[in-house]
Write a structure and sequence with these properties.
Shape: globular
Number of helices: 20
CATH topology of the largest domain: Spore Coat Polysaccharide Biosynthesis Protein SpsA, Chain A
Number of strands: 14
Distance between the termini: 68 Å
CATH architecture of the largest domain: Alpha-Beta Complex
Length: about 475
């Protein structure tokens, strides 16, 4: 017997699996077994695993490929530990992870699944992932019905609760971990330690990057709606629309607000207390998150602004100001038809995207042609004497510029992006509202809104503000 059974499925991960195994061996808590199942890897993964001479490691070398969910279920079925710990084959557990998770579960017998915060990691950069806005098990449960906040490699599960309720991993391509979380939520409490105890590796070809966003969305929606049916939630139809970003009419938003309050009450949050709503970051974050994902129009804005859990600080920020402006400028039909308004909204967004992608294609085509002729933005910046720059916008163009600068003498000191809290890239990323370090120049990679971005940056910086479009045209 042992306290913790670590279960890991491995497939084609020779480059990183050794580092993952070593991170388990280095745990300050030592009463564990490590069940490693090699799922017919075609590389040297099995050879790397066999090099570890530790009696606590149980190595299983599959003769046929069974898939991650099947492997995890088998590992759990033979596990001897009181708790099941998870790690993926390319992630890192920091030394005190097991020690802190075991202590918490021992002290809180009503908690059946425990996760932790994580850092994102590449071969060059480690970056903190924003921590979930949830401070109690009830808040964590409420958040989980909207957003998956648990890194799979941070799971520690009470095995007895799984077996007593016949809970196992289901065979999803992407969201088997989310499915398990919501199943565990029906039999006990789940919680999330606000400490960075694991590192989640991001690299090209990664399993979770091989699937389309649409497949992820469909699986998560199916899992979420199944959970809502299990708890006999009565507003499933409006939630289905909300999760697809399709709320439009005033009735839609009003029913959603009622449903939001009922789900919060189900999870024991004091949603009827106005002071609680004003101060509770979990409630304010989730309502803002969901309303911001819907169609921007007057109905959206009216319901949000009249709610007792609106986020006044966010409304005064650049993101909130844009949300208000988009809602106020929404196109409506003269007869007030919701269906027509919805169609007009979608048409306007489609036209904006068409223009955006055409400009992006044109820009990248000119860039590729210049490279073929031996000219590059890096060489242009060097010629102008810009040795240390910042990149504004880290979408496709920003990432391409950062990659090109790696082999030049021009340093990308940092990037500026409104999504800095969750964006992961191989340089420091800050928001435009943050203090900005002095640089020789800032290159704006956004294909639209250069003038407004330049005006905002000029209020804070004294350096030249360049448009990537102008840079490419100068080559």
């Amino acid at each position: 017997m042992c306290k913790v059974s670590v279960v890991m499925s491995v497939y084609n991960c020779e480059q990183y699996v050794g580092e993952t195994i070593q991170s388990i061996i280095d745990q300050t808590f030592t009463d564990w077994e490590f069940i490693i199942i090699n799922d017919c890897s075609r590389d040297r993964s099995a050879e790397v695993i066999r090099k570890f001479d530790d009696p606590r490691i149980i190595f299983i070398d599959n003769k046929e490929n069974k898939g991650q969910s099947a492997n995890l279920n088998y590992g759990i079925s033979i596990a001897k530990g009181e708790y099941i710990a998870r790690t993926d084959h390319d992630d890192i557990s920091y030394p005190t992870r097991f020690e802190k998770q075991v202590k918490y579960l021992d002290d809180h017998p009503d908690v059946v699944l425990l996760g932790t915060a994580m850092q994102n990691m590449s071969d060059k950069v480690v970056k903190d992932e924003a921590m979930a806005p949830a401070d109690t098990p009830d808040e964590v449960a409420f958040v989980e019905t909207y957003v998956d906040i648990f890194p799979h490699s941070s799971f520690m599960i009470r095995k007895k609760a799984m077996l007593e309720h016949d809970i196992w991993y289901e065979n999803y391509s992407y969201a088997e971990d989310y499915s398990l979380q919501l199943k565990m939520l029906t039999v006990g409490k789940i919680f999330y330690l606000h400490e960075y105890l694991i590192a989640y590796r991001i690299f090209p070809g990664q399993w979770t990057q091989l699937y389309s966003d649409e497949l992820k969305r469909r699986e998560v929606e199916e899992i979420r709606l199944t959970y809502l049916e299990q708890i006999k939630f009565r507003h499933i139809d409006v939630y289905r629309k909300a999760f697809r970003g399709e709320l439009c009419s005033k009735k839609d938003f009003q029913v959603f607000q009622t449903a939001f309050e009922e789900l919060a009450s189900f999870h024991h949050l004091d949603i009827g207390n106005e002071e609680f709503c004003r101060e509770n970051r979990c409630v304010k974050y989730l309502f803002k998150y969901m309303m911001g994902a819907q169609i921007c129009n007057g109905n959206n804005l009216e319901v949000y602004k009249n709610s007792s859990y609106k986020d006044e600080e966010w409304l005064a920020s650049s993101g909130g100001i844009k949300y208000v402006k988009d809602c106020q400028e929404a196109v409506w039909s003269e007869d007030g038809s919701v269906e027509l308004a919805y169609a007009q909204y979608r048409y306007r967004k489609a036209k904006e995207n068409e223009e955006k992608y055409f400009e992006l294609f044109s820009l990248m085509s000119r860039w590729v042609l210049a490279k073929q002729e031996g000219r590059s933005p890096a060489a242009y910046l060097e010629k102008c004497g810009y040795r240390r720059i910042a990149i504004y916008g880290m979408s496709q163009v920003g990432q391409a510029l950062l990659k090109e600068l790696e082999s030049s003498s021009v340093e990308a000191a940092y990037a500026i992006d409104q999504n800095a809290d969750w964006l992961f890239t191989d340089c420091k990323v800050v928001k435009s509202s943050d203090p900005l370090e002095e640089v020789d120049a800032i290159v704006v990679t956004s294909v639209f809104y250069y003038d407004s971005i330049r005006n905002d940056l000029c209020k804070k910086m004294n350096c030249p503000i360049l448009s990537i479009r102008d840079v490419i045209d100068e080559l």
